[in-house]
């Protein structure tokens, strides 16, 4: 996926899988202290980065994050693995900065 593994317990689940497009998706979630999440964000995206603000409930940030999961006050980031641009991810962080969802996908298109 191209992101560092956080110092937290991870939960992995299957996301959207579209076999017609030869595409897979997975979701990794974790909870940690706000400091743990900030440290992970700095490791993943660089010092001083804490994500883009969500401007409204249900704002579309990724086809892999359902609109009902997105709320004002949350922050998000997206990108791709520099070694594999077809492996993309979106990160959604709760408004209190302790809950993180990483939705990752890869397509062979």
What do you see in this structure?
This protein is mainly beta. The protein has one domain (8-104). Helices cover 11% and strands 39% of the residues. It contains one helix and six strands; from the N terminus they run ββαββββ. It has one helix at 34-45, and strands at residues 10-14, 23-31, 52-53, 75-81, 84-93, 99-107. Strand 1 (10-14) and strand 2 (23-31) form a beta hairpin. The two termini are 17 Å apart.
Strand and helix map with partners:
Layout: E1 10-14, E2 23-31, H1 34-45, E3 52-53, E4 75-81, E5 84-93, E6 99-107
Short description:
The protein has 109 residues and is mainly β. The chain contains one helix and six strands. A six-stranded antiparallel sheet has the order 1-2-6-5-4-3, with no helix packed on it.
């Amino acid at each position: 996926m191209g992101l560092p593994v956080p110092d937290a317990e991870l939960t992995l689940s299957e996301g959207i899988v579209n076999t017609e497009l030869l595409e897979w998706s997975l979701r990794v979630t974790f909870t940690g202290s706000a400091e743990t999440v900030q440290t992970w964000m700095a490791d993943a995206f660089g010092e001083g980065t804490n994500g883009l603000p969500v401007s409204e409930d249900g704002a579309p940030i990724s086809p892999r994050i359902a609109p009902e999961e997105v709320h004002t006050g949350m922050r998000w980031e997206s990108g791709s693995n520099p070694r594999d641009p077809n492996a993309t991810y979106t990160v959604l962080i709760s408004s209190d900065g302790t809950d993180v969802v990483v939705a990752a996908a890869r397509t062979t298109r």
